[in-house]
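Researcher: I'd like a candidate sequence for this fold, 332 residues long. If you have to choose between options at a position, lean toward the conservative one.
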């Protein structure tokens, strides 16, 4: 039987999915030390956010499959995995619902000045809370989405139902998809930033998108607008965001991701009443966790049965991976 190391606890009702094919050896919720001590005996991994580069893979010479629990995979060196005949899968549909809802929750919370009002009730006991409170309505507000993939599309549907005027910049979507979602296509990122009261990021981190939100792009945003990021912390230059907040050019921000993660305790963004920061928990509803984990285990089962998973990230490794899996089975 294969031995699977997992970064996260396997929910009890999902444990039977591994029956007959893999035996968990990881403790779940692992520390880096636990990771390194358990990895050499692993045949496969249910991976979270730890870094899997060539050096880590070489610690586990029998490693056959890395099944990523989530939509991002920048923590896995796909070239190194392919060179070693290790199949890598992910679960792009798993986080969609919970993360989209989290993005919208951050939009509402920042737009309604909820953190500032709550803080004021405790620390600023002055009268006339009503008079001093100022919030933005989502209804009829122009909201811009950068990226209209799985999560961005669901955000668009939720916001449209709330009566917002949604536009999106995504060079990879068709006019037909935008129409189906009731979204107006923006011709450029600059145009989207300039016309939106709320800008929400829904795109992967890559060299091309690193610090997409910078001093220059923040300056193009509408004065008094809000920034929301539930994608990757590296998309935003946090020092530039702080300066834009200090100037009052940006009204507030809602961030589920930071760079680095988790945010350091002295990160000034944590201590502002115009910013809400959560520790990358957008997909962590109970249903979301269960969906992601069940999909990841499903991918793992398929790969170990030499059935090509739908969400295989490195198809060039598949033939060699199946040869290695078959050899493992022959060896007993």
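Model: Candidate sequence:
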């Amino acid at each position: 039987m294969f031995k699977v190391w997992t970064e996260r606890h396997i929910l009890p009702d999902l444990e039977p999915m591994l029956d007959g094919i893999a035996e968990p050896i990881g403790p779940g919720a692992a520390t880096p030390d636990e990771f390194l001590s358990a990895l050499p005996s692993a045949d496969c991994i249910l991976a979270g956010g730890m870094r899997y580069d060539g050096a880590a893979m070489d610690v586990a010479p029998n490693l056959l499959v890395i099944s990523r629990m989530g939509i991002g995979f920048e923590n896995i060196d796909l070239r190194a995995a392919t060179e070693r005949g290790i199949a890598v899968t992910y679960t792009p549909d798993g986080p969609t619902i919970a993360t989209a809802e989290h993005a919208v929750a951050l939009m509402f919370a920042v737009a309604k000045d909820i953190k500032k009002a709550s803080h004021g009730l405790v620390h600023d006991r002055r009268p006339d809370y009503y008079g001093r409170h100022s919030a933005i309505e989502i209804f009829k507000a122009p909201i811009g989405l950068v990226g209209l993939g799985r999560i961005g599309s669901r955000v668009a549907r939720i916001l449209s139902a709330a009566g917002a005027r949604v536009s999106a910049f995504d060079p990879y979507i068709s006019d037909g998809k935008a129409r189906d979602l009731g979204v107006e296509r923006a011709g450029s990122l600059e145009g989207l930033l300039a016309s939106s009261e709320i800008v929400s990021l829904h795109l992967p981190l890559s060299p091309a998108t690193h610090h997409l939100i910078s001093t220059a792009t923040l300056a193009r945003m509408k004065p008094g607008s809000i920034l929301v990021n539930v994608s990757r912390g590296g998309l935003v230059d946090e020092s530039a965001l702080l300066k834009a907040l200090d100037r009052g050019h940006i009204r507030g921000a809602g961030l589920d991701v930071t760079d680095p993660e988790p945010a350091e305790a002295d990160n000034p963004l944590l201590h502002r009443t115009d910013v809400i920061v959560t520790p990358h928990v957008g997909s962590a509803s109970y249903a979301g966790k269960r969906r992601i984990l069940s999909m990841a285990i499903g991918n793992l089962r398929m790969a170990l049965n030499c059935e090509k998973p739908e969400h295989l990230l490195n198809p060039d490794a598949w033939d060699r991976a199946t040869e290695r899996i078959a050899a493992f089975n022959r060896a007993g």
